[in-house]
């Protein structure tokens, strides 16, 4: 497990990476009341939030952006396993620092995260959604960078600014465009079907029929909820899974490509390089 805290002015960035051959629980907490946004990379870990005898659970965390208020009584428990590594980047600021932020930033918090500024409990979940392609790319870069020292601080300052800008931008756009609960449940089911059948995914019409939705509505709603068209999303998840397989060792590049549904090694390598900025063979270097 690797946990790193990076302090930048009134914000703290928490970078968490955890892999395990056997199931384990990664626990973290904050020493004082904070408002934070957690951005989840690959792994799809199960999250439990425990406080004052209560518990809230979050499934399907892969690609999730989740805001919250939490005080020192709250414990965050990530359930990590061999096929569910943890990649989580948290940007947090203490409640007492909010008023000292630049005026425009304070206005964004007040407009879009007001319930977190006036919490009624130890833990208050805020808006959550699955990240856009641009946000996912920014999170991927954070976990793949190899910088040190001052260059690393500059890098994370820029990533923090980009992620918060994207997060508030997405909140502003979606404020009046939320999908019905029934539609969200069907979309989550569609996502589960795709991830369970990466090698041979169903066609769009079959997927739509399986979740009880017409094809056009599936295409429009899926992109609105997850930030990508159906099969662009699937490709992204295939590449994330392949990266995990290669990085964990014991799986060749060719085997990883096959396991996530690529017959052509050259097509796989090209798509991989476009997403991560380097070829799959460079992971072991």
From TrEMBL:
PROSITE patterns: HTH_ARAC_FAMILY_2. Keywords: DNA-binding, Transcription, Transcription regulation. The keyword Transcription regulation applies. Residues 188-285 form the HTH araC/xylS-type domain. This is Helix-turn-helix transcriptional regulator. GO terms for molecular function: DNA-binding transcription factor activity; sequence-specific DNA binding. It comes from Croceimicrobium hydrocarbonivorans. Pfam families: HTH_18. The lineage of its organism: Bacteria, Pseudomonadati, Bacteroidota, Flavobacteriia, Flavobacteriales.
């Amino acid at each position: 497990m690797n946990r790193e805290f990076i302090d930048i002015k009134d914000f703290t960035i928490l970078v968490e990476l955890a892999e395990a051959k056997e199931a384990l629980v990664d626990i973290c907490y904050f020493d004082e009341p904070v408002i934070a946004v957690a951005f989840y990379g690959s792994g799809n870990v199960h999250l439990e939030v425990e406080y004052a005898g209560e518990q809230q659970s979050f499934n399907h965390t892969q690609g999730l952006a989740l805001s919250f208020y939490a005080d020192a009584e709250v414990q965050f428990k990530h359930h990590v396993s061999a096929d569910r590594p943890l990649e989580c980047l948290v940007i947090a600021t203490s409640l007492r620092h909010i008023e000292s932020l630049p005026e425009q930033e304070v206005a964004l918090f007040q407009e879009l995260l007001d319930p977190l500024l006036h919490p009624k409990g130890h833990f208050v979940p805020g808006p959550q959604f699955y990240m856009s392609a641009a946000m996912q790319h920014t999170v991927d870069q954070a976990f793949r960078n190899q910088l040190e020292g001052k260059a690393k601080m500059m890098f994370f300052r820029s990533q923090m600014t980009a992620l918060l800008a994207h997060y508030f931008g997405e909140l502003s756009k979606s404020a009046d465009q939320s999908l019905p609960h029934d539609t969200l449940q069907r979309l989550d089911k569609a996502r589960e079907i795709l991830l369970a059948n990466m090698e041979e995914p169903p066609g769009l019409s079959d997927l739509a029929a399986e979740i009880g939705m017409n094809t056009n509505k599936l295409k429009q709603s899926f992109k609105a909820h997850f930030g990508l068209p159906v099969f662009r999303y699937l490709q992204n998840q295939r590449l994330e899974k392949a990266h995990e397989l290669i990085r964990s060792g014991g799986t060749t590049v060719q085997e990883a490509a096959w396991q996530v549904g690529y017959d052509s090694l050259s097509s796989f390598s090209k798509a991989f390089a476009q997403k991560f900025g380097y070829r799959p063979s460079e992971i072991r270097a």
